Request: fold
Amino acid sequence: MYTLTVNGKTVSCQQNKKLLPFLRDDLRITSAKDGCGSGACGACTVLVDGKATRACLFTLEKLQGKNVITVEGLTPREREVFAYAFAETGAVQCGFCIPGMVISAKALIGQTPNPSSSEVKKALRGNICRCTGYVKIEEAVLLAAKLMREGTPVPHRECKGLLGDDLQRVDAEAKTLGTGLYVDDIVVPGMLYASAVRTAHPRAKILAINTEEAKAHPDCIAVLTRKDVPGNNKIGHLEFISDWDVMIAVGDITRYVGDALAIVVSRQKETLDEIKQLVQVEYEVLKPLTSPTMALAPGAPKLHEKGNILSHEHLVRGNVEEALKKAAHVVTNHYSVPFTEHAFMEPECAIAMPEGDDGILLYTAGQSIYDEQREIARMLGIKPEKVHVQGQLVGGGFGGKEDMSVQHHAALAAWHLKQPVKVLFTRQESIMVHPKRHAMEMDFTTACDENGYLLATKAVVVSDTGAYASLGGPVLQRACTHAAGPYNYQNIDIEGTAVYTNNPPAGAFRGFGVSQTAFATEMNLNLLAEKVGISPWEIRYRNAIRPGQVLTNGQIADESTALDKCLEAVKETFENAKYAGIATSFKNAGIGVGLPDTSRCIISVEGGKVHVRTSAACIGQGLATVATQIACQTLGLPPQLIVVETPDTNRTPNAGTTTASRQTVFTGEATRRAAGLLKAELDAGKTLAQLEGKEFYAEFDYETDKLGSDKPNPISHVAYGYAAQVVVLDEIGRIEEVAAAYDLGRVINPRAAEGQIEGGIAMGLGYALTEDYPLEGGYPKATYGTLGLFRATETPPMKISMVKGNGGDKIAYGAKGVGELATIPTAPAVGGAYYKLDGKLRTKLPMEDTFYRKKK
Reply:
């Protein structure tokens, strides 16, 4: 018997289990989150005798007689202060890390009531945040310390929720205090637990799967294999390329180490691994193709029926060869960028259960409930409306939760067993299974005239798309369409190939291919500037796209384009620094390129409040707050009367996937239109009480032109955002400061937009300097603690400014997306700074021979 005190109550347990499962499973204290299970992320931080401690590391034996405090055990005053401080400063995004941050902050303030910024950073060293860049969390801790120290009442700030207001996030308090529910926080009566048996080899023929011994385990309810899939065994995020196996059948060949061979279902989650080890698999091990070079070699085995090339793009505009001949200066370099891991704080989890006579209810944390509905219906061979999907809080996504991971396996098990089933990835399983950022090998030639005006870009891009399609085709398209940069010249020849290999799949990741090719183009620009004899800032300013000019893809830049203003905003920082690098970028909003792209919204009046109903997933970016402010602006009502519902296929219309920086524009405009219909009724003299039960539906789509259109000026996307970033180094190569200016159009919530940018910069710094996803023979070798994620003590000060062009207010009040754009210019800006520091051109990420990573 092990006895300790938790939140003031004496509790006991017969088993010597880890503290974290004891809190979550036995006591149902769920503010402590299971982010990694290895003490690396800090999401499970609790106080043990006043000291911040990782609950996943210590067994109850070590805690005998000790006093444990979680967020649930804070005093009412502490809860009020921390909830206000984290909401007011904009410190909350996906929220999964926040209760752990609060506990680390409480430990610090208890010892140091008036902490300095450096002391706050040090106190948060063990807590990773993947969303915010730590800046606003640090501000929140300092504010909380001030309020606690001075004993002042928590301020009450009235906010009308209009565009441009810093409305506190509508979910900030629930996330800060741990009362908001993520899928793994939910327990359903009679719930079973399932997990996949995965292949031991990236490429092997499955000769036999023996499940008898596993089924004999007393906790085993079932072991499902390919033959138990009633519908289509092939699923995929893009319906027209559904090439991902639900499970690999006997006689078939695996494609990567994440392939599922069987699904084990247990009464107890503690015995899942035990049962999985009893499933016996016979293999004929085959040599894996672990690079595009191997996969494209003559005679290479086909990984998919159609071959080893997923997609090929060749974008030609103007006459590149003629321009290169006439150019005063030409530079050519080869660039290499690695796979990288999203490392979102919340590992994937889903719960499925029977609903009605022949339906399924799914609790999920993905990026589109309708995508999941479609894929699960396809797998089960039933009508989509039989699959009812409800979105819960999402602990970060960044593109990594667009594909099926756990949802389909939970649904399949629940379908067969007619009982609720939870599937939860371990952190290592998450690292192994879900798609990554694409590794790319790139050859870039860039040319300019004697005055530094760009003339041409010629590039060849080879993308490792891994074992399955995921979004490898669209990622390649974006990599190619943005490869020449946000500049005004018309000669491009960009060829791209996405190649299947036996590596983990690659798919959507913040930047969506643009982060890779922007690195190459921006680094080449620095060399051209040097040849011309002008500064890296000047060559970008001379070439920056301006309203009415033509982008390299042929689209005419609209009147809202403000890249030149972005550059002007960071000029002083760049020119005053001894060692600084600069980069610009642009990123589309919306899917575009001729593909259908629609968002939908229902506004309904219920209980005297206005309900905004849309399926758009919030993955940390604050979509519900955006929708609230657009509704407030349109209706002239206070935010207290606006309720943004969570995604539910039975209640919220299909708003499309949270991807391509599209939701603020598309769902924002659909919300504005639906709210406008209600506003017309209110303007006609009706009250909310008189409109009770009424619904107002609107949708928004935008016609674009397909890739390769023969129009002289095709419209590829509804809008583009633009950015300029400056990275400043000190004498030893440590980052002193990052200055960034962004053209986001109409900024709906400045503080939230700043937080998105700061988080994107921190992620970009990791991409440039420390993050890697090493593979050996197709086997991932990283753990969460070795991914190279930036921590609070490594994140530099950031100076963020937002600029706006003229007009462009017709759609979503002129707002543009920021989520992806935030990350793109950081790596080349870092590369430029190091080039200024030591004259070495770094063409490979993560960069070596830096303050952060020594040369191997």
Q: What stands out?
A: The mean pLDDT is 97. The first helix runs from residue 19 to 26. The longest strand covers residues 454-466. The radius of gyration is 26 Å.
